[in-house]
C-alpha cells in the first residue's frame, strides 16, 4: 500500500489486513507503556486545512505511539493564508523530508492532487464530502470487536441514517461495510441522498422506523444545522421526527444492536436520547479504536515490513 | 511577412475541398484574393500541399482570448497564434474579459489587438447585459454599429426570462444574433461536474443536465414568440440536442454548436480529481457524447466550436471545487473532429468552416468556396498525419489541454489569412 486515499483502493484483503493489524495495535495500547519504536526516524506531517480536533489528535497519538516524529501544519498558522498555492505548500514541506502526509481538506479530492506532487505516502483524513477511510476502518474495527466478528460481517445488517449526500463518512463506510459482507441500508430523505446510487451496494429506507427494530448496527450521522438554509428538510424538528433516535425508538432496538456516531453529535437532533443511557452505544469505543486503527495504517504505510512482534518492547 | 500587393502565392499539389466537393488543383493568391484555380500554377512563393486538403479557412464561434484582464492566461496575440495553427482564419472572442465586451471601447480594442497580431480575424462578441450581470441590456445598437454580430453573456446564461425576451425583440430589429450559454444557475450553485453516478461517488456537487435543457427549451420558445434567431453555445446533453432537433424540424430560427470535449470525453475522467478535466458545461456521460456526435452528423448541431478557455497552471492546480472551468481547444479541434467523429471529410470541414462562418455573419470573407475573386482565407491540412498532443507543444500561453498524450490524426500544414501565409509547414510565421 502506497497511500490510503479511499476505501476501494484498499480492497477486501487490505481491509482485513489492517483490521488484523489493529488487533496488535490495540494490544500495545493496553500496555502500561503504550509505545513501540516501530516508526522511529519516520516523519509524519499532519496537514489540516480544515479544523478537526479529534481526528488530528487521534493521528498524532497514533504516530507518537509508534515513535514517529510528528509535525502539525494547520491552516490558520500557515503561509496558505499568504496566498501560497497548495502545490507550493506541499513541495516546500516535502523538501524538509517527510514520509507521510495526513491530509484533511474541505475540498473533495485534495489527497489525490497531493499524491501527484510528492513521493511521501498520503493518508486521507477526510476530504470534502468524498471519503474518510480511517473513520471507516475504525468503525469496522469497532463492529468487529463489539460483535466478535473477526471473519467478516456476513449476515449483519447495518443502517446508516442521516445526511448521506454531504457525508465523507458515509462514502467510506458504505464500501467498507459492504466489502466485509454486511447488508447496508441508507436511511434518509432523497434530499440528503446522492443524486445517483447507481452501483452502490445498498438499499434505501425513508424513515428510521423502517429499520430501527431489525438492524444489528444503527449508524447515526451528524445533521448539520448549517444545511438548514438549503431547503433539504423543512425543519430540524421534522428531521428528528423521521430520522432522529428518540427514547421511544431506542426502546425498539434489539438487545445486541450497536449504536454508532462519528461525532460530533447534535444532541436533540439526530441523537434525541442520551447515548450514555443506550446499552448498545459504542461511541466512546469508536474514539478509542481510532488510535489503534491509525497506528495500523501508519505502520502498514511506513513500517519496514519486519513485523511488529520483534520491535515491540 | 509577405507583401500581399506584389507577391503571388500558389498552394500547389493539394486537393481542393469546399462546398462543391473535391477537385485536384492549385490555387493562386494575389492581393489577398484568389486569382486563379487550376492545374500546374506557378507563383512567386509556393506552398506545398501534396497529400493535403485545401479548404476554406475555419471559423471558431467560441474562444476566450482573456485580454483584457487575464493576460497571464492568454492574450489576443497568443490566442490568435493558436487559432492560426489550428487552421482558423476567424475566431469569435467571448465577452467575459475584465472589463467585459459591454462597451464600444473594449470591443474596438480587442479587434485592434487582433489586427495587430495579424494571424486571424478576431471578431469580438458583445455582451447582452451590462457587466454580464443579467440586469440591464448592453448598448447593443452601438455595439452592432461597431461591427459586433454575436451577442452573449457567455460564462453565464441570461437568467431572467423577461430580460431575454426583450433582448431577442431588440436584437431582431438590429439583425444581430443572440447566443446563449444555457445554464439555469440556481440549479448549478457550487457545481463542479456533471450530476450523475460519478459525482455521487466522488462527493462533489453536481451540475444537472436539466439546468442546461430548461434554458434551451425556454429560449426555443422565446425565439418562437419573438421571431428572433437564437444560437445555442456548447450543447452538452442528449436532451438538449433533441430539443434543438425538434425546433429545427418546426422551422424555428435556431442554430447550435458543440465543443470537441463534449464529443470525446466523459465525466469519469474526473475520478482522479484533476481540474484539467473541469469545464463548463461539464463533461457528461457516454450517452450524451453519442447524442452530440449524432447531432453533428445529422445537422442538428451546425458547428464545432472549441470553447478554448486558457487558464494558468496555478489555477488548474487548485482543489477541484475551486479551480476555474475550461480547456484549451484551438490547436486540437481539427484533429479530434477528423479522428473521432467518423464523418466524411467534407462534412467535418463544413462544421468547422462555412457553417460557423454563416452564423458569425462573416460568410462574405470566411468559409467561401475557393473560387476566383474569393478572399484568400484558406486552410491546408493533412487529414492523415498522425501526431501526439503535448501540452508543451502548444502555442497557447496556457497548458490546460485535457488531451496531452493522446494520439490523433489530422494536422494543419498551412494557414493563409487575408492572402498571407501565417502558418507554413505547421510553423506560425509571426
Protein described:
- The complex is a heterodimer of chains A (313) and B (430).
- With 313 residues, chain A is of the alpha/beta class.
- Chain A folds into two domains: 137 residues, Aspartate/ornithine carbamoyltransferase (Rossmann fold), CATH 3.40.50; 151 residues, Rossmann fold, CATH 3.40.50.
- Chain A has nine helices and nine strands.
- In chain A, the strands form two sheets. Chain A has a five-stranded parallel β-sheet, covered by helices on one side. In chain A, strands 2-1-3-4 form a four-stranded parallel β-sheet.
- In chain A, helix 6 links the parallel strand 5 and strand 6.
- In chain A, helix 1 crosses helix 5, helix 1 packs across helix 9 and helix 5 crosses helix 9.
- The longest helix of chain A has 20 residues.
- Chain A is globular and about 55 Å long.
- Chain A starts with 10 loop residues before the first helix and ends in an 11-residue tail after the last helix.
- The C terminus of chain A is likely disordered.
- By secondary structure, chain B is of the alpha/beta class.
- Chain B folds into two domains: 98 residues, Urease, subunit C, domain 1; 304 residues, Alpha-Beta Barrel (TIM Barrel), CATH 3.20.20.
- Helix content of chain B is 28%, strand content 23%.
- Chain B has twelve helices and 21 strands.
- Chain B has a seven-stranded mixed β-sheet with strand order 3-2-7-18-19-20-21, covered by helices on one side. In chain B, strands 11-12-15-16-17 form a five-stranded parallel β-sheet, sandwiched between helices.
- In chain B, strand 8, helix 1 and strand 9 form a beta-alpha-beta unit.
- In chain B, helix 4 packs across helix 6.
- The longest helix of chain B is centred in the middle third of the chain and has 18 residues.
- Chain B is globular and about 60 Å long.
- The termini of chain B are close together.
- The model of chain B has no long low-confidence stretch (mean pLDDT 97).
- Chains A and B meet through helix 4 of A and helix 5 of B.
Amino acid at each position: 500500500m502506497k497511500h490510503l486515499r479511499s476505501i476501494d483502493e484498499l480492497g477486501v484483503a487490505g481491509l482485513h489486513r489492517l483490521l488484523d493489524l489493529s488487533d496488535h495495535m490495540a494490544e500495545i495500547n493496553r500496555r502500561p507503556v503504550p509505545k513501540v519504536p516501530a516508526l522511529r526516524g519516520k516523519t509524519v506531517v499532519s496537514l489540516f486545512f480544515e479544523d478537526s480536533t479529534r481526528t488530528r489528535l487521534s493521528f498524532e497519538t497514533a504516530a507518537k505511539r509508534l515513535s514517529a516524529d510528528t509535525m502539525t501544519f494547520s491552516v490558520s498558522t500557515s503561509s496558505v493564508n499568504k496566498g501560497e498555492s497548495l502545490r507550493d505548500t506541499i513541495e516546500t514541506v516535502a523538501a524538509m523530508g517527510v514520509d507521510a502526509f495526513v491530509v484533511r481538506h474541505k475540498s473533495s479530492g485534495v489527497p489525490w492532487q497531493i499524491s501527484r506532487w510528492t513521493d511521501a505516502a498520503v493518508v486521507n483524513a477526510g476530504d470534502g464530502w468524498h471519503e474518510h477511510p480511517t473513520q471507516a476502518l475504525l468503525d469496522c474495527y469497532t463492529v468487529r470487536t463489539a460483535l466478535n466478528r473477526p471473519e467478516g460481517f456476513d449476515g449483519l445488517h447495518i443502517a446508516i441514517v442521516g445526511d448521506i449526500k454531504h457525508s465523507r463518512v458515509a462514502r467510506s463506510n458504505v464500501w467498507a461495510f459492504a466489502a466485509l459482507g454486511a447488508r447496508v441500508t441508507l436511511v434518509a430523505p432523497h434530499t440528503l441522498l446522492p443524486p445517483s446510487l447507481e452501483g452502490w451496494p445498498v438499499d434505501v429506507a425513508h424513515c428510521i422506523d423502517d429499520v430501527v427494530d431489525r438492524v444489528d448496527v444503527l449508524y447515526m450521522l451528524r445533521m448539520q444545522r448549517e444545511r438548514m438554509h438549503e431547503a433539504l428538510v423543512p425543519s430540524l424538528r421534522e428531521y428528528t421526527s423521521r430520522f432522529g433516535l428518540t427514547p421511544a425508538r431506542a426502546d425498539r432496538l434489539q438487545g445486541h444492536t450497536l449504536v454508532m456516531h462519528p461525532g460530533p453529535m447534535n444532541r436533540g437532533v439526530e441523537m434525541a436520547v442520551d447515548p450514555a443511557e443506550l446499552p448498545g452505544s459504542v461511541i466512546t469505543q469508536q474514539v478509542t479504536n481510532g488510535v489503534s486503527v491509525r497506528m495500523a495504517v501508519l505502520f502498514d504505510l511506513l513500517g519496514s515490513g519486519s513485523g511488529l512482534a520483534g520491535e515491540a518492547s | 511577412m509577405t507583401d500581399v500587393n506584389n507577391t503571388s502565392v500558389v498552394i500547389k499539389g493539394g486537393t481542393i475541398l469546399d462546398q462543391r466537393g473535391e477537385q485536384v488543383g492549385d490555387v493562386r493568391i494575389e492581393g489577398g484574393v484568389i486569382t486563379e484555380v487550376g492545374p500546374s500554377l506557378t507563383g512567386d512563393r509556393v506552398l506545398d500541399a501534396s497529400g493535403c486538403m485545401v479548404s476554406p479557412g475555419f471559423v471558431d464561434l467560441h474562444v476566450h482570448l482573456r485580454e483584457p484582464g487575464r493576460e497571464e492566461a492568454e492574450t489576443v496575440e497568443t490566442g490568435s497564434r493558436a487559432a492560426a495553427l489550428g487552421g482558423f482564419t476567424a475566431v469569435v472572442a467571448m465577452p467575459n474579459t475584465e472589463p467585459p465586451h459591454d462597451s464600444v471601447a473594449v470591443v474596438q480594442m480587442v479587434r485592434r489587438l487582433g489586427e495587430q497580431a495579424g494571424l486571424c480575424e478576431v471578431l469580438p462578441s458583445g455582451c447582452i447585459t451590462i457587466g454580464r450581470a443579467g440586469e440591464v441590456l448592453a448598448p447593443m445598437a452601438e455595439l452592432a454599429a461597431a461591427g459586433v454580430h454575436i451577442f452573449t453573456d457567455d460564462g453565464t446564461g441570461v437568467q431572467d426570462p423577461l430580460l431575454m425576451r426583450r433582448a431577442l425583440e431588440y436584437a431582431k430589429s438590429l439583425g444581430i444574433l443572440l447566443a446563449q450559454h444555457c445554464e439555469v444557475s440556481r440549479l448549478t450553485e457550487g457545481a463542479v461536474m456533471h450530476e450523475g453516478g460519478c459525482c455521487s461517488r466522488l462527493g462533489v456537487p453536481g451540475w444537472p443536465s436539466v439546468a442546461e435543457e430548461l434554458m434551451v427549451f425556454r429560449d426555443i420558445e422565446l425565439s418562437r414568440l419573438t421571431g428572433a434567431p437564437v444560437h445555442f453555445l456548447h450543447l452538452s446533453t442528449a436532451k438538449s440536442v433533441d430539443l434543438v432537433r425538434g425546433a429545427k424540424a418546426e422551422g424555428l430560427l435556431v442554430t447550435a454548436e458543440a465543443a470537441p470535449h463534449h464529443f470525446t470525453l466523459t465525466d469519469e475522467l474526473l475520478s482522479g480529481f484533476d481540474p484539467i478535466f473541469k469545464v463548463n458545461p461539464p463533461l457528461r456521460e457516454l450517452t450524451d457524447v453519442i447524442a452530440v456526435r449524432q447531432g453533428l452528423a445529422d445537422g442538428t448541431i451546425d458547428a464545432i466550436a472549441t470553447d478554448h478557455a486558457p487558464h494558468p497552471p496555478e489555477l488548474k492546480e487548485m482543489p477541484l471545487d475551486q479551480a476555474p472551468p475550461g480547456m484549451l481547444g484551438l490547436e486540437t479541434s481539427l484533429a479530434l473532429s477528423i479522428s473521432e467523429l467518423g464523418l466524411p471529410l467534407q462534412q467535418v470541414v463544413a462544421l468547422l468552416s462555412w457553417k460557423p462562418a454563416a452564423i458569425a455573419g462573416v460568410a462574405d470573407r470566411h468559409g467561401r468556396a475557393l473560387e476566383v475573386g474569393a478572399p484568400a482565407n484558406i486552410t491546408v491540412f493533412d487529414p492523415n498525419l498522425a501526431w501526439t498532443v503535448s501540452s508543451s507543444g502548444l502555442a497557447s500561453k496556457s497548458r490546460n489541454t485535457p488531451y496531452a498524450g493522446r494520439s490523433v490524426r489530422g494536422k494543419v500544414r498551412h494557414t493563409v489569412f487575408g492572402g498571407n501565409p501565417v502558418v507554413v509547414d505547421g510553423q506560425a510565421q509571426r
